[in-house]
# Entry
Amino acid sequence: MTRDNLLDAARLTLESFRSADAAMLRCLDVARAACRTELPLLVLGESGTGKTLLAQAIHNSSRRASGPFVSFNAAALSDTLLDSQLFGHEKGAFTDAKHQLRGKFEIADGGTLFIDEIADMSPLAQAKILRAVEYGEFERLGSERLRTADVRLISATHHPLATFANTEQFRSDLFYRLAGLTVTLPPLRERPNDLRELVAVSIRRAAQGQGRSISGLSQNAADALFSYHWPGNLRELDLVIHAAVAMTEGTVIEEFAILIRNGDRPGTLPPALRPPVSADLRLRTVEREHIRRILRELAGNKTKTAQALGISRSRLERKLADAK
Ligand SMILES: Nc1ncnc2c1ncn2[C@@H]1O[C@H](COP(=O)(O)OP(=O)(O)OP(=O)(O)O)[C@@H](O)[C@H]1O
Ligand SMILES: [Mg+2]
# Structure
């Protein structure tokens, strides 16, 4: 498998998750153990850290690989809908049940059932899952017949599930059932050693997908990527890089193509700006005017100006030197 196929879900394996980061390497040790065993696995981590893709990769590398990988999102479903989606229903079980439906547990028989956003399930749904996991049996809605399914369970959430279990927001007996093994994926901002490689892989994939040839990044564009805190993690990185490749006409990605939302960083919203009066609209000129104006408004304080602009102080110094 080449690195360019990284996100082709059906072919994804743990090989695609190479890392030089200690916390991530520990995650991969647990993931490899999860491939070798049938223990239920709980995947934790902020949104966009790769939980869903890791679950798929573990399934693909487990002895259930030839069986189905069935994904189910437990967020925002009513109890009835969740019940019928997970366990199925008979025709006429409720008003809208016009046909018989097999639930995800049945469909995942012989394979892996991935339940995403598990912390968002109602207490009733939690009780039903517990029974299915504990005894391996369940009924379709509207049927008394007990059914069984041979399912390996992987669940995920971006919430701190152990804390939820301690404070009774989540059943602790279910928590222990789900967490046969636990892996907590680190946020991207804590993986500085991996960022360069992840950026490179993302550029390669985006360029390939858009039929483009990109040789690299300018220094300023790289600085912008490396000084950012990535609240949306790998998902945000991938989207920013895809947009950057689309914005780039030549072969080198320049800073203006790095469209990072800095607005959610506290205290960095620059004051509202009037459109530049200068007729010179080249980016360098507009940027220089912008920097000088913020610097003026912040009484020449470079630290605050760098913060307001969402760049490092040393980068600001460089830009000011360039502008002279
Ligand atoms: N190992 C990886 N290498 C590169 N990009 C990745 C990797 N893992 C995830 N991504 C990118 O991040 C996106 C989100 O990944 P994924 O859906 O697995 O995250 P998640 O943790 O499940 O997020 P959520 O909590 O929102 O469900 C992917 O679509 C992909 O663009
Ligand atoms: Mg997910």
In short: The chain has three domains: 3-186, 192-261, 264-324.
